[in-house]
Design brief:
By secondary structure, the protein is α/β, with parallel strands linked by helices. It has helices at 7-15, 33-40, 44-48, 61-68, 85-96, 111-120, 140-146, 169-182, 204-207, 236-247, 255-266, 268-292, 322-333, 359-371, and strands at 21-22, 79-82, 102-107, 123-128, 130-131, 136-137, 151-157, 185-189, 211-216, 229-233, 297-298, 307-312, 335-336, 338-339, 349-353. It contains 14 helices and 15 strands.
Length: 377
């Protein structure tokens, strides 16, 4: 049984490592192992002492304790350490979903959040974020119309990739209450948690006993090469079933990754502040850029996270296609923006990544192309 193409990763496979100007990355600026260890007060010598044997399937108990302290209601037993954050999506969907189930998933979305569910069950219905003049909003009336007795799961991601949307605490509590009243599971991808510069919201793990929360060190903390992640599951039965699925996939985390993850969590506040300072500087560059190019772009400033979803004026694009523009821009100019079509959305949006220190040089390159009249031809 085939699964839908993973369009985001296919696009990055084609352009990410061969293009000089990456404007679409969702992660934040990274660092070396040596720099991370120095920051945490550890050393390469300690890393060198790590034994390369099997580890506990659920994860190192001390690491799980560290992670649980990031939540109000989670215990170390509620944590399952992953071999990669995306593994948590696969394991959760395999654990929860049967063929006859239906799922409601917030859209636009990272491919894995919808494609794995679509592969496993009867139907995945999109719950669309709604663009207003300057921001994005949730439509709870639409959500209510999508849910029925077959709905097993609602999938959301906050702070949201790719729009940078963050619901108010009242809106998030309304969503949790909606799921609880109907006995629906809530899968909440919180991989960008910690990148808020206005209001914050609680973790779903602290609000709802039938939630599965995904998080990790790739985005907020700038450590995607570490592949460190976890899920928080307070329901013991579901957690046990998920660990059984893990036995069929990766079995256990890598011991060097667990050691380095532990070091990163010790200094997580400093890592997050480092990322936020880069994003905030890049957001100021965006304000100037999009004011200059307002005829081509509609800029909705993100509320949180390290990405923004930018609308393009199709009348100024060759073939009226943002997707064609992105491919041609990468091939012709070495500048990478991610088409919104990769994220299941309309062909007039592109994702821009705000967390890298090379953002200014890449934005300047795009600015020069547009000044020269480039429209994707």
């Amino acid at each position: 049984m085939k699964i839908d193409a993973f369009l985001t990763e296919q696009f990055f496979t084609e352009y990410e490592f061969s293009s000089p100007y990456l404007l679409a990355a969702s992660d934040c600026e990274t660092m070396s192992i040596g720099d991370l260890l120095a920051m945490s007060g550890s050393s390469l010598a300690q890393l060198g002492e790590i034994q390369l044997g099997y580890t506990e399937s659920q994860g190192n108990p001390q690491l799980r304790k560290q992670i649980s302290e990031m939540y109000l209601e989670a215990s170390p037993d509620d944590i399952v350490v992953l071999t990669s954050p995306v593994e948590g999506i696969y394991l959760a969907m395999q654990t929860l979903l049967e063929k006859e189930d239906e799922v409601v998933a917030l859209r636009p979305a990272y491919d894995a959040l919808t494609n794995v569910a679509q592969h496993l069950c009867h139907q995945v219905l999109p719950w669309n974020l709604v663009p207003s003049t300057e921001s994005w909003t949730l439509n709870f009336e639409e959500l209510d119309s999508l849910v029925n007795e077959k709905t097993k799961l609602i999938i959301v991601n906050f702070p949201h990739n790719p729009t940078g949307y963050l619901p108010s605490p009242e809106e998030f509590e309304r969503l949790v209450a909606f799921a609880r009243d109907r006995g629906i599971w809530l899968f909440c991808d919180e991989i960008y948690r910690g990148l808020e510069w206005g209001h914050t919201i609680p973790s779903a793990a602290d609000l709802y006993e039938k939630s599965i929360v995904l998080c990790g060190l790739s985005k907020t903390y700038g450590l995607p090469g570490l592949r460190a992640g976890w899920v928080v599951i307070r329901d013991e039965t579901i957690r046990t079933e998920l660990i059984n699925w893990k036995h069929y996939t990766t079995i256990c985390p890598a011991s060097p990754t667990e050691f380095l993850a532990s070091q990163a969590i010790r200094v997580r506040a400093a890592l997050a502040e480092r990322s936020k300072s880069i994003i905030e500087a890049n957001l100021e560059l965006c304000e100037t850029f999009f004011e200059k190019h307002h005829q081509l772009f509609t800029w909705r400033r993100p509320q949180a996270g390290s990405v923004a979803f930018v609308e393009m004026n199709q009348n100024q694009l060759v073939d009226s296609s943002a997707e064609a523009f992105c491919h041609n821009l990468a091939r012709d100019k070495g500048i990478v923006l991610l088409p919104g079509t990769c994220l299941g959305y309309e062909d007039r949006f592109v994702r821009m990544g705000l967390g890298r220190s090379g953002f200014q040089a890449a934005l300047n390159a795009l600015d020069q192309c547009l000044d020269q009249g480039y429209t994707g031809a």
